[in-house]
Amino acid sequence: MVTDPIADFLTRVRNAQMARHRIVEIPASNVKKRITEILYEKGYIMKYKFEDDNKQGLIKIALKYDPQSKEPAIKSLERISRPGLRQYAKPAEIRKVQNGLGIAIVSTSKGLMTDKEARTQNVGGEVMCNIW
After folding, report:
1. How many Cβ atoms sit within 10 Å of the Cβ of residue 13?
2. Which of 12, 71, 88, 114 is 20 to 30 Å from 39 by CA-CA measure?
């Protein structure tokens, strides 16, 4: 049993990139699906696919690397709010990641969104993770 599924998601992606894997498989949930969609929209991953296996489901993510240097597109995945210490922020308190070069994923009353979208819509929430 995994006590923090978001941290597990981030760790699987981080480990797959360190091992230079092209594809990583992760057990699915609605929150993980939305995080995957955000990563795709912002250009951090190449492709993704949701598979239904009549149980929990599976997310297959094709990781993105730089063609010349073979460096991963994601430099860092950092869990901010965790089960033992939740981190909430008002719209004005949501800090930019790497001076705007990265993204923070925020869980708001309007669903999961990036830090920039949360500031634009003037909603705060739980800061899930930082990615750059």
Report:
1. 24
2. 88
56-115 pLDDT tens trace: 999 999 999 999 999 999 999 999 999 999 999 999 999 999 999 999 999 999 999 999
The DSSP output letter for 95 is P
pLDDT in tens, 34-57: 999 999 999 999 999 999 988 899
Tokens of 75: 């430099």
Q: Which two tokens stand for residue 89?
A: 């922020």
Q: How far apart are CA 57 and CA 52, in angstroms?
A: 4
Closest CA to 26 of 1, 51, 54: 51
DSSP class of residue 91 equals G
